[in-house]
Backbone:
């Protein structure tokens, strides 16, 4: 019987970890997930893969800030592939917790590479590092490719820069199969509610059903290259299929602003937004209410002329990244990868899921 490959995923309880674990289980892998010890379980996204008689996910306790737990897990499993997706990944939080962000998102990567080296797994274990478009920060060119100089603008970006170059250094110094996937923004219904895209789709559906008055946001004109997480985890796997390790930008090559994300989300609910005012006094008004584009009951509580978006200065960052746009030509050529989900499909996928959540919440509160 052919031996099943072993994959270890950090950050398995997050958006990418959930999609990747599902993908690898489907490929016949024996999947292990490293999770932090917690008094409250955080495995909702992967619950369907845990336990049961069919091959699924095995969870092990460990922490990116704890070398001992990392060494123990690597020694026990001796994985064929490690996908290091774990991180303190919220840019805004990194300004409030820079030391923790540096330890987990930066040095955590070093701890794993050292474990591979110390246990002489250079020829066995392939290592994938989840790098980020935040490395480019104050962009030096548009679009950004593997050759674009880095200029991070947050503690998170700086920590990830340390991790990126540590991967390159261990690859060149010790011959490890270690590669960076420089992934641009990717979203899904599994995205955490603290991230702006999910905040928008969650907020729009709640406003539609009268569960909240309006949506409060920061910089509406930040522009991002948004794709679907399900497409992007396939790219991670393809990066480790290469004969030699290389770094790849993974992106759609199309860009939209936060403002456009709001407008598209509202349009899916049958709401056309018009903007009035400038700066912190700008508001988004429900200019026209029509038939929702998704299949939902037409029983919204939004009225024409209602303010449904406001600007809140608390959501501005000390230094912001205004524009990110990826050039993934290398990935398309060498990996045969390309995004399959359009921007509109992504927004609709998130809106449909969040409307179901909002509708359930409304029933529980007897709003409907």
Residues:
């Amino acid at each position: 019987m052919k031996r099943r490959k072993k994959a270890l995923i950090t950050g398995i309880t997050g958006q990418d970890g959930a999609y990747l674990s599902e993908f690898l289980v489907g490929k016949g892998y024996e999947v292990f997930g490293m999770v932090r010890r917690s008094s409250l379980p955080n495995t909702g996204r992967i619950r369907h893969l845990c336990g049961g008689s069919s091959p699924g996910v095995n969870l092990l306790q460990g922490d990116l800030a704890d070398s001992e737990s990392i060494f123990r897990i690597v020694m026990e499993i001796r994985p064929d592939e490690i996908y290091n997706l774990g991180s303190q990944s919220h840019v805004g939080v990194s300004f409030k917790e820079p030391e923790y962000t540096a330890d987990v998102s930066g040095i955590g990567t070093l701890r794993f590479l050292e474990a591979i080296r110390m246990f002489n797994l250079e020829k066995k274990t392939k290592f994938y590092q989840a790098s980020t478009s935040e490395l480019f920060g104050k962009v030096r060119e548009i679009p950004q490719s593997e050759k674009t100089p880095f200029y991070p603008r947050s503690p998170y970006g700086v920590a990830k820069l340390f991790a990126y170059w540590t991967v390159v250094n261990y690859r060149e110094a010790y011959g490890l199969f270690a590669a960076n996937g420089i992934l641009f923004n990717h979203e899904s219904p599994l995205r955490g509610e603290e991230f702006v895209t999910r905040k928008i789709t969650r907020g729009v559906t709640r406003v539609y059903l009268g569960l909240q008055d309006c949506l409060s946001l920061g910089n509406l004109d930040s522009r991002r290259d948004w794709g679907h997480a399900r497409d992007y985890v396939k790219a991670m796997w393809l990066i480790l299929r290469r004969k030699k390790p290389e770094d790849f930008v993974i992106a759609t090559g199309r860009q939209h602003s936060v403002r456009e994300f709001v407008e598209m989300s509202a349009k899916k609910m049958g709401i056309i937004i018009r903007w009035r005012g400038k700066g912190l006094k700008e508001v988004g008004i429900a200019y026209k209410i029509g038939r929702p584009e998704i299949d939902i009951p037409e029983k919204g509580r939004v009225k024409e002329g209602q303010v449904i978006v406001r600007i809140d200065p608390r959501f501005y960052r000390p230094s912001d990244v205004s524009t990110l746009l990826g050039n993934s030509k290398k990935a398309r050529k060498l990996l045969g990868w390309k995004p399959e989900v359009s921007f509109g499909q992504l927004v609709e996928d998130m809106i449909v899921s969040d409307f179901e959540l909002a509708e359930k919440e409304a029933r529980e509160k007897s709003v409907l």
Observations:
- Residues 8 and 82 are 5 Å apart (CA to CA).
- The mean pLDDT is 93.
